[in-house]
Design a protein that fits this description.
Layout (H helix, E strand, L loop, with lengths): L9 E6 L6 H11 L3 H9 L6 E10 L2 E10 L10 H5 L28 E5 L21 H10 L3 H10 L4 H22 L14 H17 L4 E2 L3 E5 L1 E4 L2 E4 L3 H9 L4 E7 L5 H10 L9 E10 L9 E9 L3 E12 L4 H13 L4 E8 L5 E9 L4 H11 L6 E9 L2 E8 L2 E10 L2 E6 L1 H10 L4 H14 L2
Parallel strand pairs: 1-5, 6-9
Antiparallel strand pairs: 1-11, 2-3, 2-4, 7-8, 10-11, 12-14, 12-15, 13-14, 16-17, 17-18
């Protein structure tokens, strides 16, 4: 049975009051309901070395939250969650490993461990040789060479690595978009062309997994609209590949500047927005304004691993706008008493083909009791000039009346429905909790002829079938 589901008003709202990072985003999406099995299978297909994954519930600031933990071996460790290394006096080349748990998030001793462990690719994929970066210093030790190998990939390397995996087309497109945003920021910061930009922290194994995981989860949840009003960042300095840098780090400032994301600098000493997090925000964000009224359908909490004076939780809410969808359009009208019906029929087709929202004409009596027609055209402001030109070119009118109106719209989509009589296009509209189905006339005519039925009989059969498929 076909299922009709209009989710037009379902939107993801990201509350970044404690900042955003890649692992926080993945965890929030998993907590929101993204399929863990699909995620782990997609990440396994990337064949990345020296890494395993744990997904578990933790207690963060007294709240249960999901933790997505990418555990690296010594050769790949980048100390991204080592507070002493990031903000203290830890040695720059220390290979001290982080524990295989998330105790640094202060979980409750009775937290639920989901035991989702995924050893990632014991052998590097032979399908993506371009993903191997051999540009390291010959004098480096073997472990340090491997470290640089995984931290210095360029955009083409990462594109080859992701393309060789088993990501859906939409997930792959989103992951590459996020890396493109980072590459453009790094290009600006370092004054290099894109082809010469080598990722460091964001090219590391854990960041590649974070970005790929976000793309897979977003695709799995079917999210198209994302509201992100602003980002909250900390202050001070943080250690990275290039030494101690001020917060926000240059890559983050470049991303939020290019994508016009509002940011609030808090008094928290530490980095709340990572370059990966900023790039994810920039790639997903479609709006900055929450509706005045909405329902919260589900909430996901993603735990961060760094300890700062902030809850360290990314909150993701799936919301539904309960308001009617309203916009503003133009109505153009004119009275015509010396055009034939054939001419107006031609004009109607031209206007609709050019992007008019609707066109109709009605019989009227004009001055001196002459019979005529009133032509009405509804369009967006952007289409005004083009449609005005068509009306003046193809009719005898010498003037137009134009006014702006407010339009209220129901959520709608046209679906292709497999029926017992053949494929039919059906327009589905939703009002509150009810879905109304209206077969498209072209489909009704085609199927009526094929099944030797009248138009009204076929229309009613398709409409009834569509209603039972909701």
């Amino acid at each position: 049975m076909n299922q009709i589901n209009l989710n037009k008003n379902e939107t993801l709202y990201l509350d970044c009051a404690s900042g955003i990072s890649g692992d926080m985003m993945v965890a929030a999406l998993l907590d929101l309901g993204a399929d863990r099995k699909i995620l782990l299978e997609a990440l396994e297909s990337l064949h990345l070395e020296g890494v395993r994954i744990e997904i578990q519930d933790v207690i963060k600031s007294g709240l249960r939250a999901c933790d997505f933990n990418v555990i690296l071996d010594d050769a790949h460790e980048n100390h991204d969650h080592n507070m002493e290394y990031l903000h203290g006096t830890g040695a720059h080349h220390s290979h001290e490993t982080m524990p295989d748990s998330v105790e640094n998030t202060h979980p409750d001793k009775n937290h639920t461990l989901l035991n989702t462990k995924c050893p990632m690719g014991e052998h590097e994929s032979t399908a993506a040789p371009a993903a191997r970066n051999t540009h390291h210093h010959p004098a480096d030790s073997a472990s340090h060479s491997e470290h640089a190998h995984h931290h210095g990939r360029n955009l083409s390397d990462i594109t080859a690595l992701l393309t060789a995996g088993h990501l859906t087309p939409h997930a792959l497109e989103l992951a590459l978009k996020i890396f493109q945003i980072v590459a453009e920021a790094e290009s600006q910061v370092h004054g290099k062309p894109l082809s010469e930009v080598h990722f460091h922290e964001v090219g590391a194994v854990d960041s590649i997994i974070d970005i790929a995981a976000v793309a897979v989860c977003i695709d799995n949840l079917g999210i198209e609209q994302v509201i992100l009003p602003s980002l909250t960042e900390g202050c001070g300095q943080i250690r990275c590949q290039h030494g101690l840098l001020p917060i926000p780090v240059p890559a983050v400032t470049a991303i939020i500047t290019a994508h016009k994301i509002p940011v609030r600098i808090s008094s928290v000493q530490g980095e709340l927005v990572t370059p990966t997090g900023a790039a994810i925000a920039a790639a997903l964000r479609t709006s900055e304004t929450l509706p005045n009224e909405f329902k919260i359908l589900r909430t996901g909490l993603g735990a961060g691993k760094r300890d700062y004076e902030t809850p360290g939780i990314l909150r993701a809410m799936l919301i539904e706008d309960t308001r009617m969808d309203c916009d503003h359009i133009l109505v153009m009208e004119t009275n015509i008493d010396d055009c034939s019906g054939e001419t107006l029929g031609f004009v109607m087709e031209e206007l609709l083909s050019a992007g008019a929202l609707d066109v109709f004409y009605t019989p009227v009596y004009m001055k001196k009791h002459r019979p005529g027609y009133q032509l009405n055209v509804m369009c967006t402001q952007e289409k005004r000039k083009e449609l005005e030109a068509l009306i003046f070119r193809h009719t005898t009118t010498i003037g137009l009346r134009i006014h702006e109106v407010t339009r209220t719209k129901l959520p709608r989509k046209i679906i292709s429905l497999e029926t017992p009589w053949g494929m039919a296009d059906v327009k589905c509209c939703q009002f509150e909790d009810e879905v109304y189905c209206y077969p498209e006339s072209d489909s009704v005519i085609r199927l009526a002829k094929q099944n030797e039925m009248s138009f009204s009989e076929m229309y009613n059969k398709i409409k009834y079938y569509a209603a039972s498929a909701k």
